[in-house]
Specification:
The protein is mainly α. The chain has four helices and no strands. Helix 2 crosses helix 3. The longest helix is centred in the middle third of the chain and has 15 residues, at 19-33. The protein is elongated, with a radius of gyration of 16 Å.
Length: 76
């Protein structure tokens, strides 16, 4: 909230996304996935992050990922 207020949003440090937004993108997904009650500013930020083409591609790739990956199968 403080960064958005200080730099004018919609991203943490202004009008363009930066590395800080990339670091918080997984947090935004958790807030939405777990239905965390957040304030209006934070909710708008999460929606802004999720609307980014990069996030849309990341979510689509995750949905297309197979449940079982042979390269991770190990015998113990």
């Amino acid at each position: 909230q403080e960064c958005i207020a200080q730099y004018g949003g919609p991203f943490l440090f202004g009008a363009q996304p930066c590395i800080a937004d990339a670091m918080y993108a997984p947090v935004a997904t958790r807030f939405l996935t777990y239905h965390v009650k957040i304030d209006r500013t934070s909710a708008a930020y999460c929606q802004q992050i999720m609307a980014m083409p990069e996030m849309q591609a990341w979510v689509a790739a995750a949905r297309d990922e197979k449940d079982d990956m042979e390269e991770f199968d190990m015998e113990f």
